[in-house]
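Human: I'm a chemist; would you kindly supply sequence and structure tokens for a protein?

Assistant:
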Amino acid sequence: MELWDIYDKFFVKTGRKHERGKPITGDDFHLIVHIYPINSKGQLLIQKRADTVSWKPGYWASTGGSAISGDDAWTTCQKELWEELGIRATPQNSYLAMMFRKYNSFCVIWLVRTDVSVEELTLQPAEVTEARWVTREEIKELEEKGQWIGYSYMDFLYHLIDEEFGTIWKDTTSNM
């Protein structure tokens, strides 16, 4: 049984727990992360969700998941990226891009700089069937075909990438 910490609308832990799979109601929220590995060409690494996952099976999506009780957004970013793709998120290659509230969750979006090849990835078979590097145009094509989870924040994420991609890792690109 997986338990999540419950937050109030001000992103303060309530001390209560929630069991995954049960509906969250009222003014209760949980923490989720979305992670986008980004390479030196500005491409994003996306993954195809396994047919056995409960939400949006077979769709192309970001890497990510819900924070288990006791974990914060950074810990969850590191765990999910490692578990699903075999990529390490470090303070040197990671960037907290944004955070927002939606429905009954707080969503934290991460960018993780890496030039790992798809062949080097270790996919978690229970959650991921495939991964690939894509351009913005390829994501739009997947969305038009109904194969991409339509994240409402993508335009803003691209704006952040355009504004900050060249500067956020200026001193760390040689360490990739």
Remarks:
- Residues 3-162 form a domain with the Nucleoside Triphosphate Pyrophosphohydrolase fold (CATH 3.90.79.10).
